[in-house]
Amino acid sequence: MSINIKALIKNKYLFLKELLSDFKNIKQILFPKEIPFIIINFNQLLYLQHLIDFAKKNNFKNIIVIDNVSTYPPLLDYYKTIEHFVTIEKMDRNYGHMVLFQSPELVNKYCQNFFILTDADIEPNPKLPRFFLYKLLFLLIKYYNTILKIGFALEINDIPLQYPAREKVLNWEKKYWTDEIEKNVYNAHIDTTFALYKPNPKKYMKFPKDFYKALRLGSNYTARHGGWYIDYNNLSEEQQYYVNLSNQSSSWITDKDGNTKSKDY
Prior knowledge:
Structural class: alpha/beta
CATH architecture: Alpha-Beta Complex
Low-confidence stretches: none
Mean pLDDT: 89
Helix content: 25-40%
Number of domains: 1
Protein backbone atom coordinates (compact mmCIF):
# COMPACT_ATOMS: atom_id res chain seq x y z
CA MET A 1 0.00 0.00 0.00
CA SER A 2 1.30 3.48 -0.84
CA ILE A 3 0.16 7.07 -0.47
CA ASN A 4 -0.63 9.36 -3.40
CA ILE A 5 1.32 12.29 -2.00
CA LYS A 6 0.51 14.57 -4.95
CA ALA A 7 -3.22 14.19 -4.37
CA LEU A 8 -2.89 14.71 -0.66
CA ILE A 9 -0.89 17.92 -0.79
CA LYS A 10 -3.16 19.62 -3.31
CA ASN A 11 -4.28 22.87 -1.68
CA LYS A 12 -2.48 21.82 1.52
CA TYR A 13 0.08 24.59 1.70
CA LEU A 14 0.83 24.04 5.37
CA PHE A 15 1.60 20.38 4.84
CA LEU A 16 3.71 21.11 1.76
CA LYS A 17 5.70 23.71 3.68
CA GLU A 18 6.19 21.25 6.54
CA LEU A 19 7.17 18.45 4.22
CA LEU A 20 9.80 20.45 2.38
CA SER A 21 11.27 21.86 5.57
CA ASP A 22 12.84 18.56 6.53
CA PHE A 23 13.71 15.63 4.26
CA LYS A 24 13.18 13.27 7.18
CA ASN A 25 9.43 13.93 6.94
CA ILE A 26 9.46 12.62 3.38
CA LYS A 27 11.57 9.64 4.40
CA GLN A 28 9.11 8.77 7.18
CA ILE A 29 6.19 8.82 4.74
CA LEU A 30 8.08 6.53 2.38
CA PHE A 31 9.33 4.30 5.21
CA PRO A 32 6.78 4.77 8.03
CA LYS A 33 8.14 1.98 10.21
CA GLU A 34 11.03 4.33 11.03
CA ILE A 35 8.63 6.71 12.78
CA PRO A 36 9.43 6.74 16.53
CA PHE A 37 7.05 4.55 18.53
CA ILE A 38 7.01 6.15 21.99
CA ILE A 39 5.43 4.56 25.07
CA ILE A 40 4.93 6.42 28.36
CA ASN A 41 5.26 4.05 31.29
CA PHE A 42 4.92 3.98 35.05
CA ASN A 43 5.02 0.57 36.73
CA GLN A 44 3.10 -1.15 33.92
CA LEU A 45 4.52 -4.52 32.90
CA LEU A 46 1.86 -6.67 31.25
CA TYR A 47 0.44 -3.97 28.99
CA LEU A 48 3.90 -2.69 28.16
CA GLN A 49 4.94 -6.20 27.09
CA HIS A 50 1.89 -6.35 24.84
CA LEU A 51 2.75 -2.99 23.24
CA ILE A 52 6.38 -3.93 22.72
CA ASP A 53 5.25 -7.18 21.10
CA PHE A 54 2.82 -5.20 18.93
CA ALA A 55 5.57 -2.80 17.83
CA LYS A 56 7.94 -5.67 17.03
CA LYS A 57 5.27 -7.61 15.15
CA ASN A 58 4.61 -4.53 13.03
CA ASN A 59 8.33 -4.02 12.37
CA PHE A 60 8.75 -0.63 14.00
CA LYS A 61 12.46 0.19 13.97
CA ASN A 62 12.59 2.91 16.63
CA ILE A 63 10.81 1.88 19.85
CA ILE A 64 11.18 4.15 22.87
CA VAL A 65 9.91 3.80 26.44
CA ILE A 66 9.82 6.92 28.59
CA ASP A 67 9.86 5.66 32.15
CA ASN A 68 8.53 7.82 34.99
CA VAL A 69 10.85 6.31 37.66
CA SER A 70 9.09 2.94 37.83
CA THR A 71 10.00 0.78 40.82
CA TYR A 72 8.15 -2.49 40.16
CA PRO A 73 10.96 -5.10 40.31
CA PRO A 74 9.65 -7.44 37.57
CA LEU A 75 9.33 -4.45 35.23
CA LEU A 76 12.89 -3.36 35.92
CA ASP A 77 14.03 -6.90 35.17
CA TYR A 78 12.05 -6.82 31.91
CA TYR A 79 13.77 -3.60 30.86
CA LYS A 80 17.09 -5.44 30.98
CA THR A 81 15.81 -7.99 28.47
CA ILE A 82 14.71 -5.42 25.87
CA GLU A 83 17.32 -2.69 26.16
CA HIS A 84 19.22 -4.09 23.17
CA PHE A 85 16.37 -3.15 20.82
CA VAL A 86 14.29 -0.61 22.81
CA THR A 87 15.53 2.82 23.90
CA ILE A 88 14.57 3.39 27.53
CA GLU A 89 14.51 7.02 28.59
CA LYS A 90 14.58 7.04 32.40
CA MET A 91 13.31 10.22 34.03
CA ASP A 92 14.47 11.69 37.33
CA ARG A 93 10.92 11.83 38.74
CA ASN A 94 7.34 11.04 37.78
CA TYR A 95 6.25 13.75 35.34
CA GLY A 96 2.95 12.06 34.54
CA HIS A 97 1.48 11.36 31.13
CA MET A 98 2.71 14.68 29.65
CA VAL A 99 6.33 13.79 30.35
CA LEU A 100 7.40 13.91 26.70
CA PHE A 101 6.27 17.49 26.21
CA GLN A 102 7.69 18.68 29.52
CA SER A 103 11.21 17.69 28.52
CA PRO A 104 12.89 20.01 25.97
CA GLU A 105 15.53 17.34 25.46
CA LEU A 106 12.98 14.66 24.55
CA VAL A 107 10.97 17.05 22.38
CA ASN A 108 14.09 17.92 20.43
CA LYS A 109 15.06 14.27 20.17
CA TYR A 110 11.76 12.73 19.09
CA CYS A 111 9.18 15.37 18.13
CA GLN A 112 10.74 17.23 15.21
CA ASN A 113 9.18 14.84 12.71
CA PHE A 114 6.26 12.40 12.75
CA PHE A 115 6.02 10.26 15.87
CA ILE A 116 3.63 7.89 17.60
CA LEU A 117 2.87 8.37 21.28
CA THR A 118 0.82 6.16 23.57
CA ASP A 119 0.23 5.38 27.21
CA ALA A 120 1.46 1.94 28.20
CA ASP A 121 -1.99 0.53 29.02
CA ILE A 122 -3.43 0.82 25.51
CA GLU A 123 -4.13 -2.38 23.57
CA PRO A 124 -4.67 -2.01 19.80
CA ASN A 125 -7.50 -3.97 18.24
CA PRO A 126 -6.33 -7.51 17.35
CA LYS A 127 -8.18 -7.05 14.03
CA LEU A 128 -6.21 -3.89 13.23
CA PRO A 129 -5.47 -3.88 9.48
CA ARG A 130 -1.90 -4.61 8.50
CA PHE A 131 -1.40 -1.22 6.81
CA PHE A 132 -2.96 0.84 9.59
CA LEU A 133 -0.03 3.25 9.69
CA TYR A 134 -0.61 4.31 6.08
CA LYS A 135 -4.23 4.99 6.97
CA LEU A 136 -3.17 7.20 9.87
CA LEU A 137 -0.67 9.07 7.68
CA PHE A 138 -3.20 9.52 4.89
CA LEU A 139 -5.79 11.07 7.18
CA LEU A 140 -3.30 13.13 9.18
CA ILE A 141 -2.11 14.71 5.93
CA LYS A 142 -5.65 15.12 4.62
CA TYR A 143 -6.73 17.06 7.71
CA TYR A 144 -3.30 18.53 8.42
CA ASN A 145 -4.50 22.11 8.84
CA THR A 146 -7.05 21.34 11.53
CA ILE A 147 -5.65 18.61 13.80
CA LEU A 148 -2.52 17.84 15.76
CA LYS A 149 -2.78 14.05 15.70
CA ILE A 150 -4.85 11.06 14.72
CA GLY A 151 -5.35 7.85 16.64
CA PHE A 152 -7.53 4.94 17.63
CA ALA A 153 -11.00 5.35 19.07
CA LEU A 154 -11.41 3.68 22.45
CA GLU A 155 -13.79 0.75 22.82
CA ILE A 156 -16.49 1.36 25.41
CA ASN A 157 -19.08 -1.33 24.61
CA ASP A 158 -17.29 -4.13 26.46
CA ILE A 159 -16.21 -2.40 29.69
CA PRO A 160 -16.99 -4.91 32.48
CA LEU A 161 -19.89 -4.21 34.79
CA GLN A 162 -17.61 -4.68 37.79
CA TYR A 163 -15.37 -1.76 36.82
CA PRO A 164 -16.26 0.86 39.48
CA ALA A 165 -16.07 3.89 37.17
CA ARG A 166 -17.86 2.26 34.24
CA GLU A 167 -20.73 4.76 34.12
CA LYS A 168 -18.33 7.69 34.43
CA VAL A 169 -16.27 6.36 31.54
CA LEU A 170 -19.33 5.82 29.36
CA ASN A 171 -20.70 9.29 30.11
CA TRP A 172 -17.33 10.88 29.37
CA GLU A 173 -16.33 8.88 26.29
CA LYS A 174 -19.61 8.56 24.39
CA LYS A 175 -19.29 12.10 23.02
CA TYR A 176 -16.17 11.02 21.15
CA TRP A 177 -18.28 8.68 19.03
CA THR A 178 -20.79 11.29 17.81
CA ASP A 179 -19.10 13.67 15.36
CA GLU A 180 -18.43 11.40 12.37
CA ILE A 181 -16.83 13.53 9.63
CA GLU A 182 -16.44 10.62 7.23
CA LYS A 183 -17.06 6.90 7.54
CA ASN A 184 -15.45 5.62 10.77
CA VAL A 185 -13.54 8.89 11.27
CA TYR A 186 -14.53 10.99 14.27
CA ASN A 187 -13.69 14.53 15.26
CA ALA A 188 -12.69 13.78 18.85
CA HIS A 189 -10.09 14.86 21.36
CA ILE A 190 -7.12 12.62 22.16
CA ASP A 191 -4.94 12.98 25.23
CA THR A 192 -2.02 10.52 25.32
CA THR A 193 -3.72 7.37 24.10
CA PHE A 194 -2.37 5.87 20.86
CA ALA A 195 -1.92 8.53 18.18
CA LEU A 196 0.29 9.60 15.30
CA TYR A 197 1.44 13.23 15.66
CA LYS A 198 2.44 15.69 12.98
CA PRO A 199 5.98 17.06 13.11
CA ASN A 200 6.92 19.58 15.77
CA PRO A 201 3.42 19.74 17.30
CA LYS A 202 4.35 22.23 20.01
CA LYS A 203 4.53 25.07 17.50
CA TYR A 204 0.82 24.55 16.77
CA MET A 205 -0.15 24.56 20.45
CA LYS A 206 -0.96 28.24 21.01
CA PHE A 207 -3.41 27.30 23.75
CA PRO A 208 -3.45 24.23 26.04
CA LYS A 209 -6.65 22.95 24.40
CA ASP A 210 -4.86 22.75 21.04
CA PHE A 211 -3.02 19.66 22.29
CA TYR A 212 -6.25 17.66 22.09
CA LYS A 213 -7.27 18.51 18.51
CA ALA A 214 -7.49 15.13 16.84
CA LEU A 215 -9.37 12.52 14.89
CA ARG A 216 -10.23 9.05 16.16
CA LEU A 217 -10.75 6.05 13.90
CA GLY A 218 -13.46 3.48 14.45
CA SER A 219 -14.22 0.07 12.92
CA ASN A 220 -11.15 -2.16 13.40
CA TYR A 221 -8.92 0.87 14.05
CA THR A 222 -9.74 0.95 17.75
CA ALA A 223 -8.03 0.16 21.03
CA ARG A 224 -8.84 -0.81 24.58
CA HIS A 225 -7.88 1.28 27.59
CA GLY A 226 -6.50 -1.35 29.96
CA GLY A 227 -7.36 0.56 33.10
CA TRP A 228 -11.06 0.13 32.37
CA TYR A 229 -10.80 -3.65 32.62
CA ILE A 230 -9.32 -3.88 36.11
CA ASP A 231 -11.25 -6.06 38.54
CA TYR A 232 -10.64 -4.26 41.82
CA ASN A 233 -11.91 -7.29 43.73
CA ASN A 234 -9.34 -9.54 42.11
CA LEU A 235 -6.18 -7.51 41.55
CA SER A 236 -3.05 -9.18 40.27
CA GLU A 237 0.21 -8.52 42.09
CA GLU A 238 1.20 -6.02 39.40
CA GLN A 239 -2.16 -4.25 39.50
CA GLN A 240 -2.08 -3.97 43.28
CA TYR A 241 1.40 -2.47 43.11
CA TYR A 242 0.34 -0.03 40.41
CA VAL A 243 -2.87 1.06 42.12
CA ASN A 244 -1.02 1.71 45.36
CA LEU A 245 1.58 3.94 43.72
CA SER A 246 -0.12 5.59 40.74
CA ASN A 247 -0.99 9.27 40.90
CA GLN A 248 -0.98 11.70 37.99
CA SER A 249 0.05 8.96 35.58
CA SER A 250 -3.50 7.61 35.32
CA SER A 251 -6.74 9.58 35.31
CA TRP A 252 -8.93 6.50 35.47
CA ILE A 253 -7.52 4.82 38.59
CA THR A 254 -10.40 4.50 41.03
CA ASP A 255 -11.27 3.28 44.46
CA LYS A 256 -13.78 0.46 44.88
CA ASP A 257 -16.64 2.99 44.93
CA GLY A 258 -15.74 4.29 41.50
CA ASN A 259 -14.19 7.57 42.65
CA THR A 260 -11.54 8.62 40.14
CA LYS A 261 -8.40 10.51 41.03
CA SER A 262 -9.11 13.06 38.32
CA LYS A 263 -11.74 15.66 39.21
CA ASP A 264 -12.67 16.01 35.52
CA TYR A 265 -14.65 12.75 35.38
